[in-house]
Amino acid sequence: MAVNLFKVVLVVIHVIFDIYAEARRLFRYAIQYFEDFCFGPWGLKAELDYVHRNKAPLTKPMSHIAVILGSEVVSIKDIVRIALWSHAAGASYVSFYDHSGKLKKCKSALDEALTSECQPKSHIPRTNGYKNGIAGKQYPHVMLFDITDGKAGIARIARELCEKALAKEITHNDINLKFLNEIVLREAGVPEPELGIYCGDICSTYGFLPWHSRITEFLPISSHHNVSVRTFVSVLRRFNKCEQRLGT
């Protein structure tokens, strides 16, 4: 009897917490929507102008911005907006990481969406022998990654090095940290991101390129769905205030 009562109490506590978490999420969304409706810029051109105006005080370099989608369903419309905002903020590269691999299957749709927003027509560069990103003159190089590019990618490189060593194409003296660093960075085709934005309440990188995120500053947003340009700029401001100690 006591055990059953304990289970009931535990279930009730979980239900109450779930209701509280959902109410808190909806409240934050309502506040954000109200602020964006009253004060936020409307339309892509106005949003890009807003980013341009607010990037002037930002002094930290941002050549590469990474966005970790987490467990969220991919929204092509919002990914395009984030990519263009990142370019307006000065990033030459923006990468989107979806550990499930579903985003990579949407490359054509993403390319079409970017093309419809920008001129000239975009093209898809080849990286590592397969199509892994999108690039154009009026927006950054957009790279798409999944779990196979993270720890699995490092494991694949290690296996290939072992095979080359067995075939006597290289010696064990050739394999050092500098050698590995050059290979791994060349495989990804992008520099290390200065800023990583992860979506959702779970603080996790979901296996995002561990070799490339040694000095990355990770900051959260509630979701990439319907994310506002004001939220994006606030993340840039937070990043600009971060003091990187590099383990010291």
From TrEMBL:
Supply the InterPro entries for this chain: Nus1/NgBR, UPP_synth-like_sf
Task: Give any GO molecular function from the UniProt entry.
Answer: ditrans,polycis-polyprenyl diphosphate synthase [(2E,6E)-farnesyl diphosphate specific] activity
Which enzyme class? transferase
GO annotation, cellular component aspect = dehydrodolichyl diphosphate synthase complex; endoplasmic reticulum membrane
Localization, UniProt = Endoplasmic reticulum membrane
Q: Which reaction does it catalyse?
A: n isopentenyl diphosphate + (2E,6E)-farnesyl diphosphate = a di-trans,poly-cis-polyprenyl diphosphate + n diphosphate
Lineage top rank: taxon: Eukaryota
Cofactors required: Mg(2+)
What keywords were assigned to this record? Endoplasmic reticulum, Magnesium, Membrane, Transferase, Transmembrane, Transmembrane helix
What EC numbers are recorded for this enzyme? 2.5.1.87
| Pathways involved | Protein modification; protein glycosylation
Identify its protein family: Belongs to the UPP synthase family.
Q: Can you name this protein? A: ditrans,polycis-polyprenyl diphosphate synthase [(2E,6E)-farnesyldiphosphate specific]
What is the source species? Answer: Thrips palmi
UniProt gene name: LOC117652640
